[in-house]
């Protein structure tokens, strides 16, 4: 236990494991919503978590010095993406009820919702692992390992939900007991693994603590980097033994990518892993790989003194590391003009510490090792004994031991730098999520599956929603600069560069523009089809209009007990208010209903049939055009029948309606046959 002179525990190192994941909402059947806005409905997600004992809405307040320092460090628009609040939101009246807080927050539509888990404060994060026994390294026949156990104290657990469809779970740990260099790397590498990276077999016999172990497919990863056991408080432990079932089942693993049980236990029952989603839950999937992003601060005087030293500095043996326990302005002889090559530039441990390699260094080329160390190290404060390392999946800070004079560095690490890294990680995860969504929409567009009628409308709406969320992401979550402070600008640029965010965003922009152009083409074709349909509709009324104009649209009315033939103009019949019995005469007139059937109902039935065939049976417009001539000819026949009827030719009424029914049946058979011919 590391204690100060007052007997208070002081941390040897701090570790933050961050799990980025995709999230989607499920319907009552346990399936992910197909509609893009429904599956990423933040309002519904907050309702799901409202009664979850694991998570409480984190209403950010600037109520202590650390909160003030990190809040003012960032620009105001950046604060809204990090804390869910800007300066203008701090003056609002605080609500005591979580529902009112959430409702007020959701109205602002900021990109992030912050939650905290109070249930595991000061609980133990325990994991066991196998490490090679150096005393038996010369044994060529067998492999001997010893089991190590690490217990770290849980400081806090946060959950950030972003409206781009990603989330980040962060577990903040304190190490008070393990000070050796290899212990720190073991904690980082073994603690971040959430499922096996690979499965394999070892030919040699494996011994742990001198006892022969069963040689199964997990011994390979467990002797490299995978923990033998992960346990958090009272949650179900994880030993990954279920992966052995892959050799025992003929069907194999239905969902090989699984999160460790303690991680799922922290998230709670409302979160389900993809492939095992339940009704109206939050379906998640890890978005990167088997490693959580790792942040680590480590205090070691001897190590930082060596790494900060120059290989060819004058009197380097007389230089002492700047000790923050003494006055900050002590006599530390830098001799800048002689320090040309620093030890950290070619040091394997510094490389392993940055890249979280628990075994041997993964770069076995001295020139490349030096290039990588220089590229990934932030050296502004190296002469003060402070080195930063940034990679695609880690952020490392090495200083002197924890003391009053360097405490501010540790505070910066767990506040400003954590928030900066989390923002960049959310950006990277969002870009990957957008890219996957674009690929899925492009696949649907190319296959053309369901892209007719309602299916086409849903597809276009999903693409529009995707594009809208991307624009919102650019405006509200992605920033070229997050702070006015020089070091903040440099650090943010370094993180962005190491994560390759700018290049990935550029590629994503190209992908989305191509998809947008494709959708624009589809909409243009859809508009053309509508215009063609309107042309067909207009043509259908040409012949009835011609006959109506030619024959004057006269009505023959039967009134009284006898047969009184009266011919009048239609407009006079409809609008002549002098005749008190006009409505009655019209309703009992056979000729009036014949005219309605021929000139109104018949075209309407034809048009309705065409619409139903096109919309519900997904028959394209060009298929309807093939029967255009038949439609016009048959309408001419109907008009001729109508004229005969107007002249009181007996029996023509029956012929007219039989002709209409025959025509509709004939048209449906013709179009359905054409549709099957083109598709099979």
TrEMBL record:
Transmembrane residue ranges: 531-553, 592-612, 624-643, 655-672
Coiled-coil annotated spans: 491-518
Any one Pfam family match given in the protein's UniProt record, by short name: CorA
Superkingdom per UniProt: Archaea
Record GO terms (molecular function): metal ion transmembrane transporter activity
InterPro entries: MgTranspt_CorA/ZnTranspt_ZntB (IPR002523)
GO cellular component terms attached to this protein's record: membrane
UniProt entry keywords in alphabetical sequence: Coiled coil, Membrane, Transmembrane, Transmembrane helix
Protein's UniProt keywords contain Transmembrane: yes
Stated name of the protein: Uncharacterized protein
Organism the protein comes from: Methanococcus voltae
